[in-house]
Automatic annotation (TrEMBL):
GO terms for molecular function: ATP binding; protein kinase activity. InterPro entries: Kinase-like_dom_sf, Prot_kinase_dom. Keywords: Membrane, Transmembrane, Transmembrane helix. This is Protein kinase domain-containing protein. PANTHER family: SERINE/THREONINE-PROTEIN KINASE. The chain crosses the membrane at residues 105-125. SMART domains: S_TKc. The keyword Transmembrane helix applies. Residues 18-279 form the Protein kinase domain.
């Protein structure tokens, strides 16, 4: 990455108080740095390049171990322009994407616990007044907190909460609900993405990614092909409990109204005996 693409280099001070340790990410919306504050604590500084009032208003309302925590906000002048920034608590860990890219697969129990943690985060967001939708439940936005004994997942990046038009890369599209490919939303949209991540953790690849390699799918535009695939119930390529298959398939149902409508419903099923024969009946009834 060329230095001209970002404002601050390692060891530079931002707003005369935050020393840059490394660049975390950069895009047209924001530049994100790992920094140290005057007390030598590790923090994350997110410098906004575009209007960010919606994200900042969401961050100010969050107070849960399952989501990123806002420390403070400020403004800094760079090259004659003023840019707002947010200081967030630093989560010592890797994203799910980074861990999977290193082929460090979680055990079934590990994947279950991460999925349960994501669901707990969504329950928290749903119970806020007004409720908060995320719309970017992606492996790169789930950070495993290594300071916890159970790899507590922390949900980051609320840049799309309340956004009208959201753009996704092709790799990200595997994790979003089919209606989002057509710029439509439903209250079950985030639940679809959470289940897609559970599938990803159990398989090591995104749902529908293998099916997209078929010659018939390669012959048509990517988004159209993926939308067609998402009109079917997801297939599994590893041996799983019927309860796990049911939870994932129901949460990822192509019809938004046929999915779980509340994350608490998913948590209820996760807490049930995974060997309960009722799940086999429920799974067979899914259409």
């Amino acid at each position: 990455m060329r230095s001209a693409n970002y404002f601050f280099k390692e060891d530079e001070l931002i707003d005369q108080q935050y020393k840059v340790k490394s660049l975390i990410s950069i895009n047209d919306y924001a530049q994100t740095y790992r920094v140290r504050n005057p007390a030598f604590e590790a923090k994350v500084l997110k410098l906004f390049l575009k209007e960010a009032n919606t994200e900042l208003s969401v961050l100010e309302r969050l107070d849960s171990p399952h989501v990123v925590k806002l420390d403070s906000v400020g403004q800094v002048r760079v090259n004659g322009s003023d840019y707002p920034y947010a200081i967030l608590d630093y989560v010592n860990g890797d994203s799910l994407f980074e861990r999977t890219e290193r082929q460090e697969m979680l055990s079934f129990i590990g994947a279950y616990n991460v999925f349960l943690g994501i669901i707990n985060a969504l329950i928290y967001l749903r119970r806020l007044h007004p409720a908060v939708d995320h719309y970017r439940i992606l492996p790169k936005n789930i950070i495993l907190n290594l300071a916890s004994n159970a790899f507590l997942p922390v949900l980051a990046n609320f840049s799309s909460s309340g956004a009208k038009d959201i753009d996704y890369t092709p790799d990200e599209m595997f994790f979003i609900a089919p209606e989002m490919l057509h710029k439509q939303r439903h209250e079950s949209t985030d639940l679809y993405s959470a289940a897609a991540i559970y599938y990803y953790l159990l398989h090591g690849h995104a749902p529908f990614s293998k099916e997209m390699n078929a010659p018939a799918m390669q012959a048509i535009p990517f988004e159209e092909a993926l939308f067609r695939q998402k009109q079917s119930l997801v297939d599994f390529h590893v041996d799983l409990y019927d309860s796990t298959r049911y939870i994932i398939r129901k949460a990822m149902h192509p019809d938004p109204t046929a999915r779980y409508q509340d994350p608490a419903e998913i948590r209820r099923d996760l807490y049930k005996d995974p060997h309960d024969p009722c799940f086999s009946e429920y799974l067979a009834a899914l259409k």
